[in-house]
Amino acid sequence: MLTSRFTSIRLLLAINIIASVVLIPMINASWLWVLVAIFMYACMNGLGIIVGNHRYWTHKSFEFKYSWMKYLCGVCSVISGTGSTIGWVGIHRNHHVKVDSVKDPHSPKYINLFNMLFLKYNISSNDLLRRCTDIAKDKFMKFTHQYWLPCVLSYITVLSFISLEALYFMFIIPSMVTMILQSFTNYFCHKDLGYKNFTSDDKSKNIWWLAYLNFGEGWHNNHHCQPLKYSNKVKWWELDLAGSLISGIKK
């Protein structure tokens, strides 16, 4: 069952949150490690989730200049601990088709922020799979879907052997921030916050601070009204880092 995999993601998030606090006295922090954490967050969330899972695999809004790039994004997605690309795509496509209805997997109208964070989604395995059969044909995606947890646990093990700082700044912090900001975007960008550039039947809004923290995903109204565009930028000041990166790596 695809939805049974949510349990592992919930557990990883809970462990990350606890470890991020408990391990503070044991960590020899430095500005270099902080920069490493920011870089890994950019890889996991920016490349893995947003460029790869969202704008390429979910919406096919562009094509990579070189095919290896989409698999690099796939690796970044897997090590983030957020589950498989196939599962991510299935959930997000269901969200767009059923946006802000009772059948929307994660509409804040029917799910609170805590349940959003811990993937208490309103979706069945059949609904999830029905929306991502095209992605499941890719051999790499099938492999990472089946073995994403052993892959991320192997990554964690390697980091643990390197140092506690490597584990903390290359997995715990960037993985936790990725999961939290993705949930914040899904939740707050469908609340009565922010503004709209486009009139729409759904509750999607643009929230500037989420857009700047989450590589352009916070321009949510822009995205819902133009989902096939690789950039969410409409106004000149709406910075979309993921869209800017895609403009340099697309065909």
Count every beta strand, where a strand is a DSSP E run of 2 or more residues.
0
- The gyration radius over C-alpha positions equals 17 Å
In terms of per-residue confidence, which ranges show pLDDT below 50 for 5 or more consecutive residues? none
Net shape: globular
On the 0-100 scale, what is the average pLDDT?
94
Helix content: 55-70%
User: What proportion strand?
Assistant: under 5%
Query: Which structural class best describes the helix and strand composition?
Result: mainly alpha
A few lines on this structure:
The protein contains eleven helices and no strands. It has 251 residues and is mainly alpha-helical.
Polypeptide structure, described:
The protein is mainly α and 251 residues long. The protein contains 11 helices and no strands. The protein has helices spanning 6-22, 31-58, 68-79, 85-97, 113-117, 125-130, 139-162, 164-188, 208-213, 220-225, 241-249. It is globular, with a radius of gyration of 17 Å. The model has no long low-confidence stretch (mean pLDDT 94).
